[in-house]
Amino acid sequence: MKGIRPPKHPFEYNGIEWPTMKISGTNTHIFAVGDWGGLAGTLPHNSQIIQYKGGQTMGPHVMGRYRTDAKTHDLSCSTPEMSDCFATNGTKCPGRCGWIEDIDTQAQHLVANQMIKRAKMNNPDYLLNVGDNFYWGGIFGKCGDTPMSKVNDVTRAQFNWIFENVYKGPGLDGKPWLSVLGNHDWGGREMDAAWDQQIAYTWVSKRWVLPAPYWMQKVEYVDQGYTVDILMIDSNIEDADEDVNSNPEHNICGAAHNPKGSSCAKVG
Fold first, then answer.
1. What's the CA gap between 90 and 213, in Å, rounded?
2. Which of 107, 125, 187, 212 is the most buried (most CB within 10 A)?
3. Which residues pair with 208 in a beta bridge?
4. Within its chain, how far is the Cα of 63 from the centroid?
């Protein structure tokens, strides 16, 4: 971002009002998306985000997760069972999992393709990105491992494979993605993933905008005579329980999955 230096720590710009966007014209189109980022596979330096056989190749790969009955909300397919569906191309997949190869294995691309098609017709002004950008547990690495003035090659690979190479084309190229962190970006069941690299990426990208966990964007529609204030709020406190033994599969501060002594104190 020209005119604003990279932060010294990821919270430096908390509450910042980002430079006003001015949009001309009388048509308003905005895209919104969330929970979109797949698994990367094998990253540089043999870093790995792999859930099942076949997932070692360049991502994005869809994460196999549990499913519930649409009517009763009872568990109908566990995460290990769904993972087996992907690993075996459905040959060892319980029918109650409802797995459909051409849909389940291409979930992110199917949505992205519709975004690409609509962007050609509607030319969105910007995109609202509500988080969970990289599954399972965010950017590979640990908070504070890389200075905020740099984006390491593992981070670049994840962004290229999961974001840049997927959401592109007329109407999408160069459009701001106004972003926040989801619980999976913090680490999923942990809080010490390299979430700070998602903030740092703001300063090397032409469209990724995430200068802090909390920030604000003003949009001025100059030909329509109104402005919009967009408040970007990190709500992951709802997934951070002070009781480290509470809700172990969802508590990002829990003891079950955070390595003993885990801390992001060094980032500020």
1. 39
2. 187
3. 177
4. 13
CATH numbers and ranges of domains, the chain: 16-52+106-267 (3.60.21.10), 63-105 (no CATH)
Q: Write the burial class of residue 240 (CB in 10 Å: 0-12 exposed, 13-18 middle, 19+ buried).
A: middle
Name the residue among 197, 193, 175 with its Cα closest to residue 183.
Answer: 193
Give, rounded to a whole angstrom, the gap between the first and last alpha carbons of the chain: 22
196-234: pLDDT as tens digits? 999 999 999 999 999 999 999 999 999 999 999 999 999
Kindly tell me if the per-residue pLDDT of 2 is higher than 70.
no
d(CA 140, CA 7): 21
Which residue pairs from 253-261 have beta carbons closer than 8 angstroms and sit at least 24 positions apart in sequence? Answer: 253/191, 254/189, 256/189, 257/188, 257/189, 257/190, 258/187, 258/189, 258/190, 258/191, 258/192, 259/192
| CA pair distance 158, 48, nearest whole angstrom | 11
